[in-house]
Amino acid sequence: MYLKKLTLKGYRNYSNAEVTFSNQINVFLGENAQGKTNIMESIYVLAMTRSHRTSNDKELIGWDQDFARVAGTVEKSSGEYPLEIILSKKGKKAKLNHLEQKKLSRYIGHLNVILFAPEDLSLVKGSPSVRRKFLDMEMGQMSSIYLYHLVEYQKVLKQRNAYLKQHRKSGKLDQTYLSILNEQLAAEGAELLAQRFSFTRRLENWARPIHSDISQGKETLMLEYASSFSVTSETDKEQLMNDLLKQYKKHEQREKEQGTTLYGPHRDDIRFFVNEKNVQTYGSQGQQRTTALSLKLAEIELMNEMTGEYPVLLLDDVLSELDDERQTHLLKTIQDKVQTFLTTTSLDGVKKELLHHPRIFNVRSGQIEMESE
């Protein structure tokens, strides 16, 4: 899979831009605040229908523009097709093959991307919400079934929390209605738990040897899906659903008092262990960075395993954050395998011998100019 062409109109500081890419490595060179990260963000938006930098779509529209348009042409083993996202003050439209998709969940997954930016180094030591977002965003690209159940779970969770808050204010509660919400939430939650556990195991299978290579065989990485429920490969969805229902019943009074749902996959986490020690608590910064890098590289292989296509890799100013050894491992892993977009202020310090025939673009004040090859 690779992105052949990108067209921007009214997007952040790009009034009009059209770029044709190499299917190998594309480098965006320029000083800070010129628009390099905006390009990376636009590719992410084209894939995921949302930004990784803001939850407010209006921020993506140029200050003097009525709307923003991001369009691209994707090449896969099955053929070529156009994608398009249009953002306006009224909302957003997503088009696949020129046809508007009424549900965004039917659009996501047609361009798979993995983003690696400096803030992703906090994946390991950051808050549990960072890791839950990581799970949901990556799994949502790989599995339309997971994305469907995630959307349904979030919808019912919102209804249940609103009802619990309403009870806290009024003191009135329809137990039958709450039971219906419990059943619906437990059914969707069981699906998420089962799929997240499976994903974590598969991700570990790819990440462990990568981590071992980077650490020169000195470290062993383990991943654990951390839930308030006992989840194993033998646990079936019916058991998970029953466990969720028991938790709702057991903590009903507490949830009524607090006006929120206290248990379920929206409160879960992933734990990382290096040589059987929790790297989030006891690991050095180097171990935490190696773990984060191993996870990102493992994602590339897992996405290929699950979808039959390698994803597009976005490296937003991350090489400067990696030492020579980790940078070398990253560039060797992606070499001649994954279409890669890389932003940097300078190629000084980047191992150029590992960048095979890069297509280089100079970025300045919202203008993109390709260097002669």
Based on the model shown, name its key terms.
single-stranded DNA binding, Glutathione S-transferase Yfyf (Class Pi), Chain A, domain 2, Rossmann fold, six-stranded mixed beta sheet, P-loop_NTPase, DNA damage, 373 residues, DNA-binding, 2 domains, nucleotide-binding, alpha/beta
Structure description:
- It is globular, with a radius of gyration of 22 Å.
- The protein is 41% helix and 24% strand.
- The protein has nine helices and 15 strands.
- The protein is an alpha/beta fold.
- One of its GO terms (molecular function) is single-stranded DNA binding.
- InterPro entries: DNA-binding_RecF, DNA-binding_RecF_CS, P-loop_NTPase, RecF/RecN/SMC_N, RecF_2.
- One of its GO terms (biological process) is double-strand break repair.
- ATP binds at residues 30-37.
Map the helices and strands.
Blueprint: E1 2-11, E2 14-20, E3 25-29, H1 36-48, E4 67-76, E5 79-88, E6 91-96, E7 99-100, E8 113-116, H2 128-142, H3 144-170, H4 175-214, E9 221-226, H5 237-250, H6 252-258, E10 269-274, E11 277-278, H7 279-282, H8 285-307, E12 312-316, H9 324-334, E13 340-344, E14 359-364, E15 367-370
Helix pairs in contact: 2-3, 3-4, 3-6, 4-5, 4-8
Summarize the structure.
It comes from Alkalibacterium pelagium. It contains nine helices and 15 strands. By secondary structure, the chain is an alpha/beta fold.
